[in-house]
């Protein structure tokens, strides 16, 4: 059956081709072009929920959370069961530090998509930030379980829980989670940085320095260079190598001036 | 019956709870801190509230001085409600407002205060820091103060200040912690019009701190650049002093807002080296710069080395660094003691490390309040009750706020806090300011029969108040306790210069004082449960 026939039957939105084009452009990170395409899709069908959702994603990428919120509110008004739109709606609140609202929205998203590990993860992050570490840890564990069940375990999902375990002084458990993250993503700087922190906490300064230097050499991650340099200052000093510590202190100071 | 219960608790190792009653109104300590807010979301509205506890008239009873705000944008004290205030302690837990006769109503938008006898005349003077204007008040010894000239410098926004003798010449010098460049007319706007909020400190440019050398004639010389202090840019909030490495020279820690903390090691030659990174006190353990607020620099685990406590804002956690000595620097101690997780949901301003139950382990007090407008975002009130943590043998910090008294549970926008024993009963009390609300006086009513000692130092070769002197008390039960003389405690505030010790059930075997410069003075079998005045022993 042709597209036009499906459209005439009402099975396909007239904006669908433009939306699909926009989505492809978004995946290729061609955001301005994707925006043009998604606007075209919405001109053809203002109620196309995937297009409204994609428009919100594009707005979020441009830090226009106000536009994203409006777009998602439109999408959810059309389809209250649009799970991904609901998740992004939670993300908008989360990114704006509106944690009470974020928790409510993520809870709803979790009802709509109980098997989505992302929702469990971000609900965990949200409620950890408002002071419920035990509940947050349970959600991190759930996110990991869901990923394992789908065979798509990711290092990124392990790290928030590992960091929380470290804060709770559950060093051995934290180390186990971090080592699993390193195994999954051997080139992830954040995982190596966290492992270096564990070593330093355990008094294994030379190992901490080695892991820290490795983390610094890895480009991909959210841990800033300054945090790694700071760790390396302490690790090298404790390892009896003040010259190496001084080098890292010098790097931080040079960036301050 | 009650005494038997206390003795039984002590014998069983159960320490009676730390408890406070709030008596400000009853004591006549009626003061409301006014931030002058009028909907402009000016950053200065957030950060005021310094308090001083000091004995201005030498009657042996700690008096109270409150700094206060002003109208915005004029930065003028346009009415009595903006006056700074001095309250004389009548030595019976009541206070009398003596602001007018003391001449301390002040000018401008005041932020912070530190008390110190800068001219060694035996009467404690006041430095009041503010927004684009500081003031130095000389205590004339007759109940009044006279504003005297201070070095002209570019008007800045100072949030804390402290007296200390950095060159051990026997005269107190002045450190001023400056925050950010600010101009009411250029206040950045953050958030949409209908949901405006106070901007993050990142929206403002940081400032260097200042150091003024005392010329011994009532004048001061700005030595900020030559000493190295002024070369470091920060967003200074709390300042605390201690001789962290036992070399006889006082070092400086500055808590900065959203940028790393600064630790200035006094090299003993008039110069300071900034070693926060090397010492491991610059950032949180994960490398994150917290919004550092108050600081205190005292030995928490009775090992003779001053440790460092810093408050921060929501989701920062408060920082506690244990001084390991030598090249090892400091280690994160907040996590192991339970403080890190326990304070993660708090925003702290002033603080202090004092032994509230006199058991020989110094406890923690935090003046708390979230930033104003936070309720819109987190669904919680900005006002918070304060917190007190009991030090469990230097290994754990236990939040005992819930049992600290009914009034202790009341929330407010707390800011400054100063520590002193206002009724000379041996238990440390706390006076706390609150933005746009009444000040609080937390009278320490903790039960128990622990012994205590207060040491009032009188320097001869050293500065008159002995600020910077380190005191080591050796107890008959074999324990060793350490503290030092400083008035720069917490956030924007100033506490009594008396060096205090809780002794638990033990009595004192010996006391060793290391005066600024390193001279050692020893005393044996000093009686407990009193304030003793110790004059520096100087050979002719």
Structural write-up:
- With 257 residues, chain A is mostly helical.
- Chain A contains 15 helices and no strands.
- In chain A, α2 (16-27) runs antiparallel to α3, α4 runs parallel beside α6 and α6 packs antiparallel against α7.
- Chain A is elongated, with a radius of gyration of 22 Å.
- The model of chain B is unreliable at 1-12 (pLDDT under 50).
- Chain B is mostly beta strands.
- In chain B, β28 (414-420) and β29 (429-434) form a beta hairpin.
- Chain B has 8 helices and 37 strands.
- In chain B, the strands form 10 sheets. A 4-stranded antiparallel sheet of chain B has the order 1-30-29-28, with no helix packed on it. A 4-stranded antiparallel sheet of chain B has the order 2-3-4-5. Chain B has a 4-stranded antiparallel sheet with strand order 6-7-8-9, with no helix packed on it.
- Chain A binds chain B through residues 66, 96-100, 129-131, 133, 163, 166-169, 197, 223-224, 226-231, 233-234, 237-238, 242, 245-246, 249, 252-253, 256, and chain B through 192, 233, 277-278, 280, 282-283, 285-288, 315, 317, 327-329, 335-336, 338, 340-341, 344-345, 377-379.
How many strand units of chain A? 0
Structural class of chain B: mainly beta
Sheet/helix structural class of chain A = mainly alpha
Number of contiguous helices of chain B: 8
Report low-confidence residues of chain B grouped into runs of 5 or more. Answer: 1-12
Q: If strands are numbered along the chain, what order do they take across the biggest sheet of chain B?
A: 1-30-29-28
CATH superfamily of the domain at 13-79 in chain A: Tetratricopeptide repeat domain
Distance between the termini of chain B: 55 Å
In short:
Chain A is mostly helical.
List the helices and strands and how they pair.
The complex is a heterodimer of chains A (257) and B (540).
Chain A: H1 3-8, H2 16-27, H3 31-44, H4 49-61, H5 65-78, H6 83-95, H7 99-112, H8 117-129, H9 133-149, H10 155-167, H11 171-184, H12 189-201, H13 205-217, H14 225-238, H15 242-256
Helix pairs in contact in A: 2-3, 2-4, 3-4, 4-5, 4-6, 5-6, 6-7, 7-8, 8-9, 9-10, 10-11, 10-12, 11-12, 12-13, 12-14, 13-14, 14-15
Chain B: H1 2-11, E1 20-22, H2 44-47, E2 51-54, E3 63-66, E4 85-89, E5 95-97, H3 99-102, E6 110-116, E7 125-130, E8 135-139, E9 145-148, E10 158-164, E11 173-178, E12 207-208, E13 210-214, E14 220-222, H4 224-227, E15 233-234, E16 236-242, E17 251-256, E18 262-266, E19 272-274, H5 276-279, E20 295-298, E21 307-310, E22 319-323, E23 330-332, H6 334-337, H7 339-342, E24 348-354, E25 363-368, H8 375-378, E26 387-392, E27 396-399, E28 414-420, E29 429-434, E30 437-444, E31 451-458, E32 470-475, E33 480-484, E34 499-504, E35 508-514, E36 520-524, E37 530-535
Parallel strand pairs in B: 31-37
Antiparallel strand pairs in B: 1-30, 2-3, 3-4, 4-5, 6-7, 7-8, 8-9, 10-11, 11-13, 12-15, 13-14, 16-17, 17-18, 18-19, 20-21, 21-22, 22-23, 24-25, 25-26, 26-27, 28-29, 29-30, 31-34, 32-33, 32-35, 35-36
């Amino acid at each position: 059956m042709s597209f036009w026939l499906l459209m005439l039957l009402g099975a396909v939105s007239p904006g669908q081709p433009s939306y699909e084009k926009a989505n492809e452009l978004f995946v290729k990170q061609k955001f301005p072009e994707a925006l043009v395409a998604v606007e075209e899709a919405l001109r053809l069908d203002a109620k196309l929920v995937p297009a409204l959702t994609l428009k919100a994603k594009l707005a979020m990428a441009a830090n226009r959370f106000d536009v994203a919120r409006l777009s998602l509110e439109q999408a959810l008004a059309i389809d209250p069961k649009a799970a991904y739109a609901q998740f992004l709606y939670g993300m908008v609140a989360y990114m704006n530090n509106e944690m009470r609202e974020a928790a409510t929205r993520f809870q709803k998203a979790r009802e709509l998509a109980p098997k989505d590990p992302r929702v469990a993860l971000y609900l965990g992050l949200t409620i950890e930030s408002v002071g419920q570490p035990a509940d947050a840890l349970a959600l991190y564990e759930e996110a990991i379980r869901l990923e394992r069940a789908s065979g798509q375990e990711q290092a990124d999902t392990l790290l928030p829980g590992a960091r929380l375990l470290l804060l709770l002084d559950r060093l051995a458990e934290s180390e186990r989670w971090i080592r699993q993250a390193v195994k999954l993503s051997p080139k992830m700087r954040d995982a190596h940085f966290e492992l270096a922190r564990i070593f330093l906490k355990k008094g294994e300064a030379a190992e901490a320095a080695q892991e820290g230097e490795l983390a610094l050499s890895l480009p991909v991650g959210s841990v800033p260079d300054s945090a790694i340099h700071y760790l390396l200052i302490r690790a090298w000093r404790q390892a009896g190598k003040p010259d190496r510590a001084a080098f890292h202190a010098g790097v931080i100071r040079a960036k301050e001036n | 019956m009650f005494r038997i219960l206390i003795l039984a608790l002590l014998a069983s190792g159960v320490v009676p709870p730390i408890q406070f009653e709030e008596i400000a109104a009853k004591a006549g300590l009626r003061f409301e801190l006014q931030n002058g807010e009028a909907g402009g979301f000016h950053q200065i509205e957030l950060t005021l509230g310094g308090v001083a506890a000091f004995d201005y008239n030498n009657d042996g009873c700690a008096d109270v001085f409150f700094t206060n705000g002003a109208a915005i944008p004029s930065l003028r004290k346009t009415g009595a409600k903006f006056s700074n205030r001095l309250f004389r302690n009548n030595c019976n837990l009541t206070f009398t407002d003596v602001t007018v006769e003391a001449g301390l109503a002040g000018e401008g938008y005041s932020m912070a205060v530190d008390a110190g006898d800068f001219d060694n005349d035996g009467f404690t003077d006041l430095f009041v820091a503010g927004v684009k204007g500081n003031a130095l008040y000389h205590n004339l010894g007759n109940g009044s103060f006279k504003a005297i000239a201070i070095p002209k410098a570019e008007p800045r926004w100072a949030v804390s200040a402290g007296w200390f003798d950095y060159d051990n010449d026997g005269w107190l010098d002045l450190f001023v912690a400056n925050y950010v460049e600010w101009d009411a007319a250029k206040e950045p706007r953050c958030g949409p019009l209908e949901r405006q909020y106070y901007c993050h400190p990142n929206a403002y440019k940081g400032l260097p701190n200042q150091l003024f050398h005392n010329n011994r004639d009532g004048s001061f010389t700005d030595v900020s650049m030559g000493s190295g202090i002024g070369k470091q840019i920060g967003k200074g909030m709390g300042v605390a002093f201690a001789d962290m490495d036992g070399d006889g020279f006082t070092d400086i820690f500055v808590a900065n807002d959203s940028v790393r903390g600064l630790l200035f090691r006094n090299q003993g030659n008039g110069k300071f080296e900034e070693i926060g990174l090397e010492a491991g006190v610059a950032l949180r353990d994960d490398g994150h710069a917290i919004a550092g607020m108050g600081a205190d620099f005292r030995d928490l685990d009775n090992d003779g080395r001053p440790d460092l406590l810093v408050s921060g804002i929501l989701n920062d956690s408060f920082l506690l660094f244990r001084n390991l000595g030598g090249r090892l620097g400091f280690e994160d101690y907040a996590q192991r003691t339970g403080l890190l997780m326990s304070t993660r949901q708090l925003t702290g301003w002033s603080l202090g490390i004092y032994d509230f139950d006199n058991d020989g382990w110094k406890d923690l007090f935090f003046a708390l309040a979230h930033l104003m407008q936070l309720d819109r975002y987190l669904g919680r009130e900005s006002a918070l009750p304060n917190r007190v943590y009991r030090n469990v043998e230097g290994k754990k910090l236990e939040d005992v706020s819930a049992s600290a008294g009914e009034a202790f549970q009341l929330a407010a926008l707390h800011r400054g806090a100063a520590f002193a024993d206002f009724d000379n009963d041996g238990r440390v009390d706390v006076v706390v300011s609150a933005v746009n609300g009444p000040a609080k006086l937390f009278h320490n009513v903790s039960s128990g029969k622990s012994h205590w000692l207060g040491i009032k130092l009188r320097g001869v070769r050293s500065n008159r108040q002995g600020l910077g002197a380190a005191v080591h008390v050796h107890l008959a039960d074999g324990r060793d306790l350490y503290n030092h003389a400083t008035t720069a405690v917490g956030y924007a505030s100033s506490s009594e210069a008396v060096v205090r010790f809780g002794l638990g059930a033990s009595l004192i075997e010996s006391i060793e004082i290391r005066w600024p410069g390193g001279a050692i003075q020893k005393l044996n079998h000093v009686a407990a449960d009193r304030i003793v005045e110790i004059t520096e022993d100087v050979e002719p």
